[in-house]
Design a protein that fits this description.
Blueprint (H helix, E strand, L loop, with lengths): L7 E6 L5 H10 L3 E6 L5 H7 L3 E4 L25 E4 L1 H10 L2 E3 L11 E9 L18 E7 L2 E4 L5 E6 L2 E8 L4 E4 L11 H11 L8 H16 L3 E6 L3 H14 L3 E7 L7 H13 L3 E5 L1 H8 L5 H20 L5 E5 L4 H4 L1 E2 L9 E2 L8 H5 L2 E3 L7 H10 L4 H4 L19 H20 L8 E15 L2 E14 L7 E2 L4 H14 L3 E6 L13
Parallel strand pairs: 1-2, 1-3, 3-4, 4-11, 12-13, 12-15, 13-14, 15-18, 20-22
Antiparallel strand pairs: 5-8, 6-7, 6-9, 9-10, 10-11, 16-17, 19-20, 20-21
Helix pairs in contact: 5-6, 5-12, 6-12, 8-9, 14-15
The structure holds xanthosine-5'-monophosphate.
Amino acid sequence: MKDAAHDRLLIIDFGSQVTQLIARRLRELNVYCEIHPFQTVTDAFLEDFAPKAVIFSGGPASVVNADAPRPPTSVFDRGVPILGICYGQQVMMDMLGGTVEGGKISGGGGTAEFGRAHVKPTAHHIDLLDGWFQGDDDREQVWMSHGDHVSKLAPGFDVFGTSPNAPYAITADTARGFYAVQFHPEVHHTPKGAKLYENFVRLAGFTGDWTMGAYKDEAIRKIRDQVGDKRVICGLSGGVDSSVAAVLIHEAIGDQLTCVFVDHGLLRQGEAEEVTAMFRDNYNIPLIAADESELFLTALDGESDPETKRKTIGKLFIDVFQKYASEIEGAEFLAQGTLYPDVIESVSFSGGPSVTIKSHHNVGGLPEKMGLKLVEPLRELFKDEVRALGRELGLPQSFIGRHPFPGPGLAIRCPGEITRPKLDILRKADAVYIDQIRKHGLYDEIWQAFAAILPVRTVGVMGDGRTYDYACALRAVTSVDGMTADYYPFSHEFLAETATRIINEVPGINRVTYDITSKPPGTIEWE
Ligand code: XMP
């Protein structure tokens, strides 16, 4: 790893809920970083990783306890800058000879603190704080979340910022390049937190060499090295991740890549044609477009249990993929669009010393079953970086900006029995809804939008006649990663116009509702 083409920063994870945000802030600065749980960071690991700087994350443990998580002491001897955040500050002080006190202490010397606080500077400025404390009232808002606090600094450290409850809010030993803060600069509630990271990586000598252009060239080299003259197959869903992975791999190995696009009969209006045209016309990538809609829809006919629907689709998808893949002579690799958030090992305190590994396989179980090796060229990227790479590779914006679409497709937007007539109605309603969103210029503001057809028929009146048709629900959410979401606040005018259009243009629907549930407690999809 030492000869990596770009500078590397190591984030040692002590189990904070927001460790991933540290990585996001650094990537925005074109700094390459990796998150590793403290248990896996050994002397040998450090030697191999050769970080140019290290960040200790926050975490829920108390350094006062004997079995508190710690980094190896050798991390302090590497001569590289270190930034400790919250628990990271406390562990740094504790290991370097300072004192940390546990629990809530009232009055004086510091208390537990959760939420917004304001930090004031002390007499001396340090480069880490360039751009801070320039406002009229000479203080900065920060986000605190700590029970323990530092009560005595380690030798060599001074204090450069204080808050009413954290006398050692900002501390540093500038001679050794060790910095430690009690608050969380990575969260949005610390408005100038990004500046602090920018200063830290500048002081550490990072040049911002992590660019998508450089990443693309390096990824192409790696794919060529890994694959040699063998063949790769790639399951295309039409989503951004698998599309970008396919185009990148095609750029690396050309016709040694074959893509398989399975139409399971649960796609949106025009989706199969759009995806196949984009790959055939723009890239000339060998593509098997497998129309397996009969197989899937027959198996799902009349099925209404959400879990059975998902399992049926998952199993058939593997069967079908295997059938087509076995026709590709010499295929030894399976490409997947796995992203970095899927592979980060997160620290688990509830599970004792073991770590929880979030493994994610788009085609679960298939590689082992078929003896295929995985090619995962997006493993180091976050979703927005995948989009940036897509742009670098010249994918049309219409593709890069597409809303996510789940593997089980319309099946999980059709609660109750799945029937072909209901799917047809749903497709039409969804197309009108998305058309409305585009016409009003809202598509890129919304993370995901779709219609669901409800298993309920209602009475209406159209013209002079009675109708007895399906109700549909419209869903639109804003989100960063799909883990949490808010409903999108459409105007009443937009909703009224859309409802009228759907009822007029889609036979079979006579009532339209808008879903205003956030996630949690709801999920984005209906099943
Ligand atoms: P939920 O409904 O769990 O969805 O809030 C979160 C995000 O994940 C998508 N989703 C899936 N994607 N296979 C996928 O590839 C699935 O089985 C699946 N289920 C949900 C969903 O569309 C949303 O973007």
